[in-house]
Amino acid sequence: MRSVRARAALGATVVVAVALVGAGLAVLLVLRANLTDQAGLQAEVAAREVAGQLALDVPYDRLEMREEEDHPVQVTDEDGRVVAVSKDLEAISGTGTDQVEPAPSPAAGSSTGSDDDGRDDEDGDDNGGHGIPGRGEVDSGDPDFGNGTATVDGDTADHRFASVRATTSAGVTLTVHAGAPLAAEQEAVGTVRGAMLIGLPVLLLVVAGVTWLVTRRALRPVEGIRREMAAITASEDLSRRVPEPGSRDEIARLARTTNETLTALEASVDRQRRFVADASHELRSPIASLRTQLEVGAAHPELLDVPGAVADTVRLQALAADLLLLARLDAGERPGRTTLDLGALVHEEVSQRIGDRIPVAVSVPDSGAFEVAGSRGQLARVIGNLLDNAERHAERTVAVSLRAERGCVVVAVTDDGTGVPPDERERIFERFVRLDDARTRDEGGAGLGLAIARDVAARHGGRLTVDGAPQGGARFELWLPSAG
To answer: Does pLDDT of 382 surpass 80?
Structure first.
C-alpha cells in the first residue's frame, strides 16, 4: 500500500481487531466460568440435601429428591454400586458409573434403632439409653465437580455434577452425585458469541471508515504542500510559498520549515545569479580593454600600450583568483589546521607592500601569543585585502595592530579616510558592492575583497567587523580563535 491513509486505516483496524478479539475471548471465558460455577453451586446444594438425608439414615426408597427434571441425582456406595437414583433418570455420564438401576445393598434399610423383634434397644444405644436414634455425618469439605450428560424422561442435556460424601450411623459411606443443567450457560455464551461475531465486523468497518476520513482530513494540508511544491518545481518560481495551515501541529511546522527553506533557496539562487551577472560585467571591461589594445597593437605596433595590457591582464588574473576562491568557499571547502604566528604573518604581508601610496604602520607587541590555526594562504589573503581597502580610502595614515582578547587574536586595520556610514557597514561585505566614494578612488577593484575576507574569517571560526576609527576613518577588526 502506497497510501498513508490506507496504511493508517489498516493499522488502526488491525489493532482494534486484535484488542476486540482478545477482550471478547476474555469476556466469554469469564462468563462461562461464572455460569459454570453457578451451576456447580446449584448441583452442590442438591447433593448436600440428599446427603443430609442419608446421614439421618433415611431409607433409600424414601429419599426426598428434587423432582424437577433439571437436577438428576445418583447415589453410589463404597463399591460403586448404584443404590438410589432420582425419578425418570434414564441415562447418566460423568459420575463414575453409567448405571441408573439401583442394586440391592447390604447397607439398605432404615436407621430407626430397632432390633429384629421390633423392640427398642434401650440398653445398647449410643445416646445413654434415651431412645434417640444414631446419626451419621456429611463430608464438609469441597465437593468434586465434573461435567457430563443426563437423560431424564427422554431428554438428554449437559450437566454440571457435584459429588458429596455422606456416612450413615452404621458406618456406610455413600456418594451423592447431583447435577445442574448447563443449558443456561451454553445459551448465554452462544448469545454473546453470536453478538460478537456480528458486531465485530461492523465495528471494524466503522473504525476503518472513521480512520480513513480522519487521516484524509489530517493529511489534506500535506497534499496541498505537495501540489504547491510540484508547481514550484515545474515553474521554477522560487517566490511562491506553500500554504501554511492555521493549526500548531507537526504539519504546520512542516509548512513553515518548507517556506523557510524556499526563502533560503530563493536568496541563494538570487545571490548566485547576481554573482554570475556581476562577474560577467567585471570580466567584460578588462577583457574588452585588453582586446582593444591588442587589436590596435596588431594594426599599429607603434601604438601598442604594453603597460596597459599588462595591467589589464593582472586585473583579470586577480579577478579570476578571487572568483575561484569564492567558488571554493561556497562549495564548503574547509581550511587547513596549520598553526601559524599571526604577528609574523602581518609583518610578512606589510614588508611585501613596497609600492603602497601610504606606508603601513605596524604595532605588534613583543610579548604575547598570537598563534592561530588555519590556512596560511587564506589568512594572508584576508590581511592583504584589508590593507588594500585601507590604502584606497586613507588620506595620510594606515595602521595595523594585534592584540589578544577573550581567547581570540584580533587584527585591527585602521585608516583616516572618510569611513563607512553606519547604514552601509554590512552591505560593504556583500559581493561586488562598492560605495560611490570607493568608485572614485578605485580603478581596479571589483568589490570582492571584503566579501572574501568575511567568508574566510567565518570559515576559520572567527568574524570580521567594521566600525569608526578614532581619527575619523574606518576600523576593521579580524577576530580569530587563538590556537592556545
So the answer is: yes
Q: Which three cell numbers stand for residue 293?
A: 589594445
Phi-psi region of 109 (alpha: psi -120 to 50; beta: other; left: phi over 0): left
Are 68 and 194 members of one domain?
Answer: yes
For the four alpha carbons of 20, 23, 29 and 35, in that order, the dihedral sign comes to negative
Same structural domain, 64 and 183: yes
Dist CA 207 CA 468 (whole Å): 71
pLDDT tens sequence across 44-70: 999 999 999 999 988 888 888 765 557
**Nearest Cα residue to 44 out of 156, 177, 168:** 177
Model confidence pTM above 0.70:
no
Query: What residue type is assigned to position 90 of the chain?
Result: E
Contact 263, 281 (CB under 8 A): no
Same domain, 225 and 266: no
* Same domain (yes/no): 210, 270: no
We report the CATH number of the domain holding residue 376 as: 3.30.565.10
181 and 54, same structural domain?
Answer: yes
Give 235-269 as a DSSP string: HT-TT------SS-SHHHHHHHHHHHHHHHHHHHH
CB 189 within 8 A of CB 28: yes
